[in-house]
Amino acid sequence: SKKHQGNENTKNKQLNLFRVDDRGKKMTTNQSLKVSEDEFSLKAGERGPTLMEDFHFREKMTHFDHERIPERVVHARGFAAHGEFQVYESMRKYTKAKFLQDPTVKTPVFVRFSTVVGSRGSAETVRDVRGFATKFYTEEGNYDLVGNNIPVFFIQDAIKFPDLVHAIKPEPHNEIPQAASAHDTFWDFVANNQETAHMVMWLMSDRAIPRSFRMMEGFGVHTFRLVNEQGEAFFAKFHWKPKLGTHSLVWDEAQKIAGDDPDFHRRDLWENIEKGNYPEFELGVQIIREEDEFMFDFDILDATKIWPEEIVPVHLIGKMTLNRNVDNVFAETEQVAFHPGHVVPGIDFTNDPLLQGRLFSYTDTQLIRLGGPNFHEIPINRPVCPFHNNQRDGYHRQTINQGKVSYHRNSLAGNTPTPVPEEEGGFKHYQEKVEGRKIRSRSESFKDHFSQATLFWNSMTKPEKEHIIDAFSFELGMVKSESVRQQVVDMFAHVSLPLATTVAKNIGVRAPKGGGSHVTTSSPALSQEYTKKSAAT
Ligand code: HEM
């Protein structure tokens, strides 16, 4: 069709095998029996009961009865598009990932944007974090960069994620409210888990009410690892920078649009792609050498901390263009399964305890959301290169694997899949040396919850600060528990006493007394030394 012309990338060609055009076709059952009547069920006489033998009625109704699958446990409300990614110049120095080598290669991508808290039908312009998940269909397998539009996270350790989500989702006794940040449990969680401070500052800022998916930044959040051909590793953070710039709504607009057009963001993305106004995002990386791991006043494994860009600059290394809308939202947008653990040779993990837990969670949830272990065979999830192993069976298996041997190391069949040495592209985990006692704590700087939250506040312009004060006052003002309101105001006095004092006044609680006496591990001397060193190399 016209829509797919000019998009003949490998993924699009593969999807063609599955596209079905039902228009003008004869109606059949799923067994391909031609159907003669689709409006009257089979009855015993004009006024009699419906007959059990009406297989057409039964099939049609049964299929309908099973149309829904569970929505995502978070990020349920999302919208996606296809596109392509091209690197500007070879990243060989840092990584051997094939899709980051050759500027002439276009890698197909699929990107799903989302809100986090609301259910599948919720309004899109609410105050919330936005998901920004990208699947690169590379020649070495699928690489997923499953990010958000805010560069830090609420918590530092995955074990708290269920608690966080229970606090931000609608309260269980009455399922109110859909929006994240205007209720008792959210703010109670914040006040009692103060590592949330930095992220909450972003959440109360204009970043949490983006103007358009086309005008949002994206962040991988965690520290990842790049590994080059020589086996050298580098710490890396990923960024997406929108070519249109980063823009937000103002709160009054966001609220009115939520009522007027709850589909505002998807409509904007869909219509612009249809018009040929293709959204573009540049991929940026921040890189820290392994030997510099401890040169910062924060732990680079702490997902509540950014790497300040003036200390570790962002290099723009490539561009992604979204140029095609989906054919079918359920088949593509809903069935896509992203996972931070989908990596390719040259990209690896770090011991960030939030990332480590995510590596478990995504497949686990998709096993139930997508009905068993074969969801990699769903068209949108298939790699564009072949995949072979000895995994077999399970619900909805599509492939017909040949032969009697489905186990590794055998003498009966010489032709079963065999592991591939690293030199020939086999993935080998980076051989980081690890040593330690089994403990549940982290480095001391993980306890510094306020230094970067303060940095964020201080970097805001006057109108941005006013918006943050308004947001705190509105959202926290909705909280019924006076104790929670007070706890939050007292907490944010550690970020800015004027901020907390103004909010306290606006929402009718006592002005915080202190502030500023929080744990700080800040040692700018360290970063200065790093800046000097990197300028010299
Ligand atoms: C979706 C878990 C942190 C970004 C999800 C889903 C789960 C999950 C279970 C639903 C997946 C599905 O049904 O397919 C977790 C856990 C986290 C965590 C356990 C922390 C321990 C994060 C962080 C980010 C993030 C830090 C951003 C860097 C996303 C995105 C989606 C998502 C973008 C939606 C993907 C899509 O569009 O299908 N997460 N998450 N999550 N998560 Fe996380």
TrEMBL record:
It is an enzyme of class 1 (oxidoreductase). Its EC number is 1.11.1.6. One of its GO terms (molecular function) is catalase activity. The active site is at 75, 148. Its cofactor is heme. There is a cross-link at residues 339-362 (3'-histidyl-3-tyrosine (His-Tyr)). Residues 28-416 form the Catalase core domain. Coiled coil: none annotated. GO terms for biological process: hydrogen peroxide catabolic process; response to oxidative stress. One of its GO terms (cellular component) is cytosol. Belongs to the catalase family. HPII subfamily. Decomposes hydrogen peroxide into water and oxygen; serves to protect cells from the toxic effects of hydrogen peroxide. This is Catalase. The chain holds residues 2 to 538 of 679 of the full protein.
